[in-house]
Amino acid sequence: xxxxxxxxxxxxxxxxxxxxxxxxxxxxxxxxxxxxxxxxxxxxxxxxxxxxxxxxxxxxxxxxxxxxxxxxxxxxxxxxxxxxxxxxxxxxxxxxxxxxxxxxxxxxxxxxxxxxxxxxxxxxxxxxxxxxxxxxxxxxxxxxxxxxxxxxxxxxxxxxxxxxxxxxxxxxxxxxxxxxxxxxxxxxxxxxxxxxxxxxxxxxxxxxxxxxxxxxxxxxxxxxxxxxxxxxxxxxxxxxxxxxxxxxxxxxxxxxxxxxxxxxxxxxxxxxxxxxxxxxxxxxxxxxxxxxxxxxxxxxxxxxxxxxxxxxxxxxxxxxxxxxxxxxxxxxxxxxxxxxxxxxxxxxxxxxxxxx
Length: 356
Fold this sequence. Notes:
The chain is of the alpha+beta class. Helices cover about 40% and strands about 25% of the residues. The chain has helices spanning about 15-25, 55-65, 95-100, 135-140, 155-175, 180-200, 205-220, 270-280, 320-330, 340-350; strands at about 5-10, 30-35, 45-50, 75-85, 105-115, 120-125, 145-150, 225-235, 240-245, 250-255, 260-265, 290-295, 315. The chain has a six-stranded mixed beta sheet. Strands 5-6-4-7 form a four-stranded antiparallel beta sheet, sandwiched between helices. It has a three-stranded antiparallel beta sheet with strand order 1-3-2, with helices on both faces. α5 runs antiparallel to α6 (about 180-200) and α5 (about 155-175) packs parallel to α7 (about 205-220). The protein starts with a strand and ends with a helix. The relative contact order is 0.09.
């Protein structure tokens, strides 16, 4: 059954989630995942719902009608401060009262006692309205010494709460993503974050890999796309061509006087035009040639050109065929049925521009 992720914005009042749940239940939807992270947004709730395609559309319309459907997530600004607070009972209360007055939430807090009569409180403060920063700092500095700490990407407790929001906005600019795709990136990043936190794994490292992969893919587009091409005469009637892009994912072509062109795998979708350009150079009569495509397995780096090869016969094993069919129907493919793989797979699709 199809599954859709909704990025919702709930009002800060009793029964808000209950209303959303009633909307989903009214259309026979089954909530299969919920995630809330106040550091992303004080009101943002991620909900995965399983329901028939028509019902998913009705749920979306009704959530939007009640003002729960979020179209964009603004980056929450995190102000990291270090406050010297006397090491005596109740000394932190004045700071907390100031934060409460300005409606500031704390994403991270850590304190250490030393040989001095003070404790160093390091806090990550979630700032939704940057205009109040100066007033906030002035009020705290009237009672205690406060220092501004530069934002530290290596501080996991701070970084993992907002990094993927910044990353999603970065990806939107890098790949010119639609708002819908950007929100999907945020939702799937949240899924990954949730799983990593449950396992106690390093979120910085994983999102760092995702970011580097995205820039690697982007930096090899258009004129920067380079490929080593090898040609090997196998027999009088068969020639093998090997196209090996520097960005990875090889494509092989067997040219046969009897069978026409047989492609083995088709690379990333984001490089479709670049790869088609190479094929048209190698085979000037490309558009009129008889073609078969053999897919070794249904990963995005092997199937990228399939949507462009309307006149080709596609050959693949039963499991891969099942995966492509499920992808086309908007269902998790065989690999994505495992929860730990779903988020990574969908983000890979977004970055590589894959269309089932």
